[in-house]
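Morning run. Coffee first, then this:
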Amino acid sequence: MKDTTCILIGAPVDSGKARAGCLMGPDALRVAGIVPALTGLGHTPRDAGNLSPRPGSTPAALPAHIHAPAETIGWTEALMDAAVAALDEGLPIFLGGDHSLSLGTVAGAARHAAGCGRRQFVLWLDAHSDFHTPQSTASGNLHGTPLGYVTGRAGFYGFPTVTHPVAEQDICILGLRSVDRPEREALQQSAIRHVDMRMIDEGGIARPLAAFLDDVARAGGALHVSLDVDFLDPSFAPAVDTTVPGGATIREAHLVMEMICDSGLMTSLDLVELNPFLDDRGRTAQVMVDLAASALGRRVFDRPTQAFSHERSVT
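And here it is:
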């Protein structure tokens, strides 16, 4: 990937689910070295600091079990505007924060793409499809609703209007392995491409990704990549509230990011659901930084050796 201005936008969003900790994610990614990693690849990172949510209130029309809706609405408004502004200047990297931040980042990216006469495509790297609405989610956690929101599903009372919904056929979810029944039924009735771990086990991860990237390229589209920690198997990335065994391996994840880099199509990136409180000596934060580096040009032979333990032997 050519040298790029990478705008780092901290989004310490912790309102999309009940368990606290993701608000520490942006600073953990900074401590793990995302700025020097990008600088070392020849890019120009600019850290815009952390955003704050806009003030808001809880709409009466939302179901009563929804967790912290006013705060998430405020975050959506702030992130939508931040995405539009940052895309005018370079490639925004949103440092999360739970996955509800993508209600704003994807909707903002889609608005920007429409202003440029381009289709917005979304690659969703996640164990979950996040296609719920406030009415369909049993947990009340809005981090399970971003794709429902940005595709224009009904029921998001009080949220900013999605002026340019992302077409379902322009979304690809990779790594699915935890989808509840209402969400599965809605997903199967949609045109969203979804690749679960069984499909990856049987046929590999490269083929469906390559087909999707080819479609983005043919359309001259903008590509937003949203990387959830739980895309990875928790044995490699433990710092996430929603651990689901059987996820992508480190090698599969790096292959995905390297293919994204080779395509030259990525225009914006989310790094989400990192909960440093659950991490093991910063291991997951470092993995997320390494994956971002792969998406922006690092190759296997460039990757430094790292130790996550002080018990490293000397030979």
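Residues 69-87 form the longest helix (19 residues). Good start to the day.
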